[in-house]
Design goal:
By secondary structure, the protein is an alpha+beta fold.
Length: 231
């Protein structure tokens, strides 16, 4: 029937912290109660999320997740990044909460993920896109990067994602420089999340920039990765 809606219910430890986070993303609070139990509803355009606070809840143990399709993931990501920077003074890229960069597949950014203060994953995808289809369009090391992204960005297993990239870089030693560069920068991103040293990957990526002139977009991506490693 027309007008039916589904509200994902996401758990958090502190409702006020959760509301501050979602308001920073651009959501508005459409419902809020503290008794008999704390809960709220936040809305952004046609996206509606129900938040439920449980005392003693540990965000590290959360299995909460929601898939959200939007017309322009890049625009949504930019807005989220600006809001989180205003709230926290920086864009959180590791720990809880965090905003993950758009993952490029087949040359376009098809989606990104946000981990909220309750440890819940919000997975944004371009409307009509398919992660499986996007992965099939790439091959060699590029496809390895996409597979690694499933581990790191979709499942949150950063260590396994690094292992996938390591194996791919060994398997495809003659991959195009731009693919090696992409793999190295993603490995930097993953190592930042896990607290591992990124110096060797940044040095290798910098050498590729100097030797192959990979373009302004690659230079900008390197700058972002280097800044993230320093923070």
């Amino acid at each position: 029937m027309a007008g039916e809606r589904i509200y994902p219910v996401l758990t958090c430890a502190d409702l006020d912290d959760a509301l501050a986070f979602y308001v920073a993303l651009g959501f508005v609070v459409s419902f809020h109660q503290r008794r008999p139990y704390p809960c709220a509803v936040v809305k952004l355009d046609d996206i509606a999320i129900h938040l439920s606070a449980i005392e003693g809840f540990d965000p590290e143990t959360s299995y909460g997740s929601a898939i959200i399709t939007v017309s322009e993931p890049g625009e949504r990501h930019d807005a989220f990044k600006a809001g989180l920077r205003e709230l926290y003074g920086r864009v959180p890229t590791k720990g809880i909460p965090r905003l993950l960069p758009p993952r490029r597949k087949a040359g376009t950014a098809t989606g990104f993920s946000v981990v909220d203060v309750g440890g819940n994953w919000l997975r944004f995808y371009r409307e009509g896109s398919s992660e499986d289809e996007a992965t099939e369009r790439r091959s060699g090391l590029a496809r390895v990067i996409d597979v690694a992204a499933r581990q790191g960005d979709a499942r949150g297993d950063d260590a396994q994602a690094i292992a996938v990239l390591d194996a791919g870089l060994t398997r495809y030693p003659d991959a195009p420089p731009i693919e090696v560069f992409e793999a190295l920068l993603y490995r930097v991103e993953l190592k930042v999340r896990t607290g591992a040293d990124t110096a060797s990957d940044l040095a290798a990526a910098s050498a590729l920039l100097a030797d192959h002139g990979l373009g302004r977009e690659a230079e900008q991506a390197f700058t972002v990765a280097a800044e993230s490693a320093r923070s």
